[in-house]
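Hi there,

I know you've been waiting on this one. I reran it after we fixed the sequence typo, so this is the corrected version. Both the input and the resulting structure follow.
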Amino acid sequence: MTPTPQLSLGLLLTAAAGFVDVVGFIELGGHFTSFMSGNITQLGDALALGAWPVALITASLVALFLLGSLAGSLLALLAGPRWGSSAVTGFVVATFVVTLGLAFAGFQPNQFMLALAAGAGAQNAILPSTGSVRLGTTFVTGTLFAVGQDLARALYRLAPPWRWAQHMLVWISLLLGGLLGGLGYRVLGINALLVPAVLYIGFLVAFLLRRPSSVVT
C-alpha cells in the first residue's frame, strides 16, 4: 500500500493534470496535452486521411510530451532525491508561464498550448514511485487496469484487500480535475490555467522548504 501523505500529493497532482488536459482539449478543438494515446490514434487517422494540419498538431503534442518526459527525468536524476521534485516542478511551472505568456501575446492555441504538453510529460517525474500506486501521473489507463487486476488478486488473497481502491482514487482524481477544468474554462476561459498554475507553485514552494529527512525514497 502507498502511504497516505504521498498518495494525497499524487492525487492532487493528477487532479491538476486532469484540469489542464480538459482546458487543452477545449482550446485545441479535441486534442490533448497529456493523453497521448488519444493523440497517437488521431495522428494515425490523420495520416491515413491526409489531414495534414491535424497530423501536425498531434505529432507536435506527442513530440513535446516526449521531450518533456526526457527533460523531467533528467532533472530528477541530476538534482537528486533532495531537489529532484523541486527541479521538475519548476520546469512544469515554467511551461505555464510560457503558455499563458504566449496566449496573452495573441498566439493561436495550436502554438501556445504545446508547452503544456512538455509540462505534462515532465510531471510524471515529480514524485518517485512509492508502494504500488503510480503517483502524480498525467495518464491513468494503466491505473484503471490496475484497479481490476488488484481487485482480482484481492479476491484470491494475493494482494491487500483495499489496494485496488488506491488505484481507483487516482482515476477519480483525474476525473474530478477534468470536471473542475471544464467548469473553470466556462467561467474564465484560458485564464482558468491560473488555478493549476498556482497549485504547482504551491507544490514548488513546499518541495523547496521541506526538510531533507522528509524526502521520499
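Quick highlight: Helices lie at 4-27, 36-49, 52-104, 109-112, 114-123, 141-155, 163-188, 194-209.

Best,
R. S.
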